[in-house]
Amino acid sequence: MASEGAVSPAFAYTVVYVKDVAKSAAFYSAAFGYTIRRLDQSHKWAELESGTTTIAFTPLHQRETDALTGAVQLPDSAGERGPVEICFDYADVDAAYRRAVDSGAVPVSPPEQKSWGQKVGYVRDIDGIIVRMGSHVRA
């Protein structure tokens, strides 16, 4: 039988596969307000200072993972999106949205109040990944 620690993991990383690791890390720092914690010298790995869960960037294709887990598949057109959305909570969603767009994010949908009590806006990052910026919903 598995030990209790094996069934109670801590969520550690979200890895985002990007075209240019250094450029994406700099973009997320400017657009969404994160500090770059680490950018390795090879520019094949970067991490943002993002609390208990790390946001990391790595190249779209690399020998270390393509052969093991398969190649990253990108959407066929700019109108499609991948199967993952990155979500950030902000106290001031309008200001966060403006900052992201002013820093090069592509506007998708400006912030609007939702029926469930959250204010939400959407942008695309420089790799076309959807980023949701929303207010925290309190119970």
Automatic annotation (TrEMBL):
Stretches assigned to the VOC domain: 10-136
Xref: Gene3D superfamilies: 2,3-Dihydroxybiphenyl 1,2-Dioxygenase, domain 1
Cross-referenced SUPFAM superfamilies: Glyoxalase/Bleomycin resistance protein/Dihydroxybiphenyl dioxygenase
Highest taxon of source: Eukaryota
Name of the protein this chain belongs to: VOC domain-containing protein
Taxonomic classification: Eukaryota, Viridiplantae, Streptophyta, Embryophyta, Tracheophyta
